[in-house]
Structure formats: C-alpha cells, structure tokens
Amino acid sequence: MSAGRRNQRCAGVSLLELLVTLAVMAVLAGVAMPGLVDLAAQHRSSARINAMLGAVQAARHLAIVGNVSVTLCPGQGPRCLGRNQWHQGAVVFVDRDRDRRIDAGEFVALRLPKMDLGERIRWRAFRNRSFLLIRGSGLTDWQNGNFQYCPADGDARFARQIILNAQGRVRHAQDSDGDGIREDAQGRPLAC
Known about the structure:
By secondary structure, the chain is an alpha+beta fold. It is 31% helix and 20% strand.
C-alpha cells in the first residue's frame, strides 16, 4: 500500500461525527448517572453500618478473650460523649472500672473516625444508655437495642440498622417487603 493511501485512511473525523459521538455519550452519561449516585450512596451506607458492626464484634471479642468489661461509646477522647453523638466517632476500650472514661492502663482496641457532615448514627437500647457495655462473658449489660445509620440527606432508602440482642449478637435489618426500605426488629420501615 502506498504512503498516500495510508494517510487517507488515517484522516481524522469530521466535526459532525465528533458532535454526534459527544451527544450519544452525553445521553448515556445522563442515563447512567442516577444509578451511579444511588450505588455510591448504598456503598457509603453499608460501609458506615458495617464499621459499627465491626466495632460491636471487636468489643465482644475483646471482652470474652480478656474476661473484662469493654465499652463502646461515642467520641475520640478520654471520655465518652453524650447520647447520640456517634457521628463524632466511636471508641472501643477495656473499661475495668466501668466509668466510661479511658484511664491509665485501659487498652484502646479500636477508634472509628468522625462521619461526614449531616450523617448520623443513633443508638437505641433497653436501659436507655448512651454507650454499650459488654461484660467479660460476652453478654451486654442488658442492653439489647440497635444502631441506625441515616445519610446526610435523610433518604430512608439508604438508612441501615444493626440489631443487637442481650447476648451481644448482631444482625442487619432487612428489607422483607421489597419496597426498598429496610425494617426494624418490629417490622416498621426505617425512617431518618
């Protein structure tokens, strides 16, 4: 093949072809974008509630292995924060004197970072405490309840919940009726 013919084949595209291609790409991106946004929101929700589930499981494991009381509470510093401050982060530590304060010699096992602005985790439990205490036996201190995550926009489709029984075992809330919103232990849809 001559050099002249090869150059004719490699000639660029016309402006019209480029505009048509860009228009098709814009339409495809417009169709795909809402699905990608929802997928990202689902991933974030699952990651947040799974981090809390991991903290509960780590606290229970540490309590059983060490036969000590372990506290999971909101906060990052030496003291636990108040009720429903879980968006400020969380800490799991050996709490020998059960004072919800990290004292000298009390081992910090895990810290969860602060969440993004507007995201929330609520802890609702029997005995209405702002923290979770797990005894050396692995049982909670009669604190069956749930942790519920709500995204910043409050969209219930992305609310997640883990349910904790008095034995310290956890399970995820499920969407049993298929409406896209998970239900709590009593079968009520989660709401943010």
